[in-house]
# Entry
Amino acid sequence: MKKKIAIIGAGIGGLTLANLLQKNSDIEFTIYEKGETLNLDEGFGIQLAVNSISILNQIDFSSMNKSELCNPIKLDFYSNKDKICDLDLSQFNSETEKYTTLKRSSLIRFLKNKLFSNLVRFNKSIESVEQDQDILKIKFRDGDIKEVDYLIVSDGIYSQTKSIIEKKEFKPNYYGALAVRTIVDRKKVKDFNKNNISLSMSSNAHTVLYAANEKEYNLVAIIRSKIKDFEKIKNINFVRAIVESSILKNNSALKPLFDEDLACWPIYTSPKPIKSILKNVFYIGDAFYGFPPTFAQGASQSIEAAKELYELLLENKQDIKNIYFEKRLKKTTMINNRSRLNYFAFHISYSLFKSLRNKFLKRLVKNNHFIKSYLGKIYN
# Structure
């Protein structure tokens, strides 16, 4: 008898898992998305290390239009506007798997187009989930009821499904920082190497610039802020004032890039990951854990978690929930610790500490042991 699976959320993790499941005729699945459609207009960028590219290639990612993505060669480190050193990203690449940057919407479109159209159901919000022996009964707010063997929750860091299933409220934690993003025309990028990712560090803030496709660059600034009234960040003048005081006063090279339309939002991270109280319920992507944005592994870990769970479902082991959770927790803890260390290092304020950081960076990017242990364990 075919296994029946419900996937909640048509984000990167859910769509990746669906594409993997589609290859197996012994599995029947449906994706349930609360929105009316997928937002394919959102233009902000994501980074994918080779650990996720190798998985995506199993669903023909290598055939994606090359104009929609880029393969940066190096990561350039700047202290304000002065270049410190660079890290060779190509050392993690193989002939077919390369560090990749692209728009999130481009990846979502690719993943959705690889699926049969009837596999995604829109306007579907969960009202309750109950366990009846080995069967999960899902009731949707529109009155629809589905019975499945497995329920995979992939509806993001603000997951309402998680709170419904576990019968207690889960709220993400404000990380004490704001993200300011914009898309920049390639012609405006003049003071940075267009083949590389540029990371500019300043006091209590950092910016990341990279090509999202042939014509556009993604620019994001992460700025420490104790702001509690998030209504203020809807005011563009307020946002521009924050960018000016925290970044542009120290790095004039970035000024033309921030002339574009800006989007701003608070950064949240997840509470401690949990195993569900129900049998055969699994969390992937940001529903499992939302990372600080300083290791660029959010999308990659959603993809990686989808592959791990897919393989366990095929193996049909009895202890699948514990196996999956322990493996995910180990990787999540490793990345989270590195993300928080990066966050501290990128935002150093005191001149002496900055000087020491820069000296260490120059050595570390050339240290093969450090690169293999700090980055290789994540990227490969």
Observations:
- The mean pLDDT is 94.
- The chain is about 30% helix and 25% strand.
- Residues 320-346 form the longest helix (27 residues).
- The two ends are 36 Å apart (CA to CA).
